[in-house]
Predict the 3D structure of the following.
Amino acid sequence: MPSNEVVASDAAAQVVMPRRRWRSRTPGSLARHLVLLVFVALALVPVYFMLVNAFKTNTEYTGNQLAPPHDLVLSTLHDSLAGGDLFRWMLNSMLITAASVLISTSVAALAAYPISLMNWRPGGLLLSVLIALMVVPPIVLVIPLFQMVVNAHQLNTYQSVIVIYTGLMLPFSTFLLATFFAGVPRSLVEAARIDGAGTLRTLLLIVLPLARPALVTVIVVQALWVWNEVLIAIIFLQQSNLRTLMVGLTVFSSRYHLNVPIVMAGMLVATVPMLALYLVGQRSFVRGLTAGATKG
Amino acid sequence: MKSSRLVPWLYTLPLFALVGAVFAYPLAQLVRYSLENVGGSPYLPTTFAGTSNFRYIASDSLFQTAIKNNLKLFLCVPVLVAVSVLLAALIFDRPRGWKVYRTVIFLPYVLSIPVVGVVWGYMFRLNGVVNSGFRSFGLGFAAQDWLGSTSWALPTIMFVIIWKELGFGVILCVARLTSVDEQLFEAARVDGARWWRVFRHITVPQLAPTLLFYAIVELITMLSWVFAYVYVMTLGGPQNSTVVTEYYIYEAVFQNNTIGVGAAAGVILLAIVSVFIGLRFWITRTASLAFE
């Protein structure tokens, strides 16, 4: 299956893999597997807990929290979706994520072009500033941003949150695209210019197609970040029908705190899209996260 | 020719506008607020406060607790570094199924904090699976109301943070190891070096810049990205025992409506983080020099 190929390889796999260094039959090999298996089990515990309990009734849960359900029921899952809150929140999250990732990636691509490919003097300084901004704690920005949004009568609107997310992601997305653009062969850009292509045409027709892996990386990492973000969503979207899924889940879990299986079913529903994105985009995701460490 | 010099500015204009609106202007405002009694209504005018906000937080025992709790969270970092280098080395030996190990060990980093916070929260309850696990091994005395006890709530949050952040370190180390010259390992093996010796004398030194980078990133995380854990798992309780600086600011501004106090705490937090940003710049510079 081609999708397996994607899952199984990552940045590491682009380097030619040497043969296994220690034979798997050495005495240490069992210990190695044991250690790794312990951590694998630990990593999977919450996912397992969600999975088994989402298909139990509350009565069964009180007597059996850990084992798979004796009577597998779908009613819990059905109940968790009843009322449509989870769907509504999920739609909100999708809308906000899609819009802010799209805008941020476009703005970043536009800015990365002169930074990396036009011998633009201030480009280097701009990059350093962006790297520094990447670690500014969001909470300190939120204090004035909240006053700004209230003064502009934009509290509880999608657009205010989309603008804030876009701005917060720009240092990362611009930095990543700029480092990638720097590797695009100058000769291609020069050739396009001599052929009479304008800068925008060169960006759209030459640079961006070459940068497709970097674009995918930037999009996947940003999408996961927005999808999982909590602080800004709590503060700027305070009406129930505007909540994002992650904030909705905290409300959901306190609403049903006496019925753990329903909470687990809701969590499961919320986790599946992320899990799918991770398994499909693992390679891009890993590349995006390690970029900061290996470059610059 | 003149117009071509304008092109870079034109292309970066949207970036400048958005970064200005979301970073530059708010940061300037933050500093202003920290020196004011922010009123926020015509009946309650804003007045200049000088350093009184700073003097207030300096004497506020809750702020001291918050800073102390952030410092306690720093204890997660050595654990993260040590365990991730070990796991990365084991994975990089490429035992059967190493790709599966790598995928699964990275998984927690991708899951969202509300999901893992709530799920671990249920497991750590007094009658939850963690305690029944202890009891079934005859360790019933170790059972706790983990998130409900003032002495155990913060360590429990630390456990969840470590659990979630570990995968990042492992992936960083594995990615770095693939670019280490394979002959280094080969030569050591031909010399008959045992696993532990190779680990100590080749793997760890080769990973040193990566581990330093990871440690700094995680220190910054412990200062500025732990709000969601606290919000989801304890809301700062019990008895304020899990309040961190971010949560202190959130309460000051959005619950108590003391914007100036929150802004002053924000300035302090920003100053602490800046030290680490400087450190990060310095390290990436020395690291890239070392590679040349």
